[in-house]
């Protein structure tokens, strides 16, 4: 019991220290308030002011099968401080139902398809620092054969229905989505679990000239031990299974943060 308490105390201290370092390394700004919303049957002149989380399918809650499935537009103007020049700026969406396209200052940034997962885009090359910038999110919940669910008796709500945040970082950042920080199991028993922490770092290394683009760096923190108590497993999993899965996906371009 004493050993378990000591391990939990050390883990808590590590997490608190990591949180303090993250607080100094990045600034997270919630931008849920004051979005202009309009559907494709209207123009931005007819937009209504909404706060996030938001869905345009409140009529579906009443059991109406003919609720609107189509495109909704969200627009927000944001003043980007000149002091952010030289930093990196990202936008993180908790989710968008079901597909979303992002444009900043009239330029297309990217698309996310799937209504149940968060996603991140880097805004740095699209921003005008020291000026007001326009963020336009085009969300679509119309039936699409490559976006689940394609069938079923549940409603498919459209909208930005989770938080949206701006994240301001230094040039070098930890990728916290798509494998940025991964705990890779080494051994699991009924008493304890041993894992390696694989940290994926993206950006300009310290001391490199500006404009230098480095390949992602992978740092390994071996031997983190966790007590078995409190570690759940899904029905059908083997809690005594050992082995290390492929630790790092080196192909593709996972989004930062």
Description:
The protein is mainly beta and 257 residues long. It contains 1 helix and 14 strands. The strands form 3 sheets. It has a 6-stranded antiparallel beta sheet with strand order 3-2-4-9-6-7, with no helix packed on it. A 4-stranded antiparallel beta sheet has the order 1-10-5-8. A hairpin with an 8-residue loop joins strand 2 and strand 3 (48-50). It starts with a helix and ends in a 30-residue tail after the last strand.
Briefly summarize what is shown.
The chain is mainly β and 257 residues long. It is 9% helix and 36% strand.
- Sheet having the most strands: 6 strands, antiparallel
β-sheet strand percentage = 35-45%
How confident is the prediction overall: mean pLDDT? 75
From the spread of the alpha carbons, the general shape counts as flat
Helices and strands, in order, run as: HEEEEEEEEEEEEEE
Percentage of residues in helical conformation = under 10%
End-to-end distance: 36 Å
Number of helices: 1
The residue ranges in which pLDDT falls below 50 over 5 or more consecutive positions are 209-214, 226-257
Give the structural class: mainly beta
Gyration radius (Cα, Å) is: 22 Å
Number of strands: 14
Q: Could you give the order of strands across the largest sheet? A: 3-2-4-9-6-7
Provide keyphrases for this structure.
257 residues; mainly beta; 6-stranded antiparallel sheet; 1 helix
